[in-house]
Write a structure and sequence with these properties.
- The complex is a heterodimer of chains A (about 230) and B (about 120).
- Chain A is mainly alpha-helical.
- Chain A has 13 helices and no strands.
- Chain A is globular and about 55 Å long.
- The two termini of chain A are about 30 Å apart.
- Classes of the chains: A mainly alpha (about 230), B mainly alpha (about 120).
- At the A-B interface, helix 2, helix 3, helix 4, helix 5 and helix 6 of A face helix 1, helix 2, helix 3 and helix 4 of B.
Chain lengths: ~230, ~120
Amino acid sequence: MKLKALRYAFPKTIPIMTGFLFLGTAYGIYARTSGLPAVTPIIMAAIVFAGSMEFVAVDMLIGAFDPLGALVMALMVNARHLFYGISMLEKYRDLGVKKWYLVFGLCDESFSINCTAEIPQGVDRGWFYFWVTALNQLYWLTGATIGSLAGQFITIELPGLEFVMTALLVVIFLDNWLKEKNHTASIIGVLAAFLCLLIFGSESFIIPSMALIILTLTLARRKLESKI
Amino acid sequence: MTPIQTVIMIGAVALGTMLTRFTPFLVFGGRTHDGQQRKVPALVHYLGKALPGAALGLLVVYCFKDVNVLSGFHGLPELISLAAIVGVHLWKRNMLVSIATGTVIYMLLVNFIFT
C-alpha cells in the first residue's frame, strides 16, 4: 500500500525535486556566506520548512536579537498557509497520526499537488499525501545540506532554473482551471492578488489579497456555493 | 548573537510558521466531547471548497510579483515562457512536459537572448 502510493506520488514531485535541490542549495550557500554555521540552515530546513521564510530568517539571524519581530515576520510571510489549511481540512481529516505531519509540511508545493491531485482507486489517499509531503521536504533538506556543507567548494551557475517553481504553479493552476466546473474563485484569486500587488507593492500585498479574497468569496457565497 | 539567542530566534520563526499551518486544523478539525468529528461551520466548509482555486491564483501572481514590466526586458522572458507553458499544456496535457518546456525556454531566453 505504501509502495504503491510512493510509485504514484514520486513522478508528481519531479519538478519540485529539481526546484528544491537547486533553491535549497542556493539557500544553504547563502546562509554560509552570510556567516552562519553549517548546522543552522540545516536545522531550519528541517523544522521550519518554508523556503522564502528561511531566506528571510538568515537575514534576521545575522541582525539583532528580536524574537517577537521574527515571530510576527513568520506569521506575515506565511499567512497564505491559513488558506491551505482551510482548503485541506476535509481532505486531511481521518488520516490519524499522518495528518499532523501533513499539516507540519503544508508548504506551497505540497498543498498545490495534494489539493489538486486526482488519486486513482487502489492508491491510498493518506499515503499519497504523505509521500508528496515527505519527498518535498527531503528534497529541500538535501539541497540545504549540500549548500551549507559544500558551499565553499561549489558554485552553481544555472541562471533561470528557479523558474521551474513558477512553471509548476502555473501548470497546477491551469490544470485545475481545466478541471473545475466554475472559474469564479480562480478569477477572484488572480484579480484580487493582481489588484493588491499594484496597490501595495510586491513586499506587502499578500495579506491584503487574502482579506480581499475572503471578503469577495463571502459576498459571492449565495451565488457561488451551489456551483462549486 | 549567542547560541541560545539563535535557538530562540529559530524557535520563533518555526512557531510563527506552524501557527499559520496548524491553526485551521486546531480550530475546526477537532473532536467533540463524545468523540464525534466536530462539524465545520458552513461558511468555512464553503471557503474550503472555494479557496483552492483562489489560493492557486494568488500563488501564480506571487510567482510573478518581482517581474518589472516598466524597465529591463519588460517581463518579456516571463511572458514568452508563460505562453509556451500554456500552449504546450493545452496541447499535450502532460504536467512534466509543460513544466520542462517552460523552464528550458526561460533559461535559454535569460542566458542567450535577454542578457
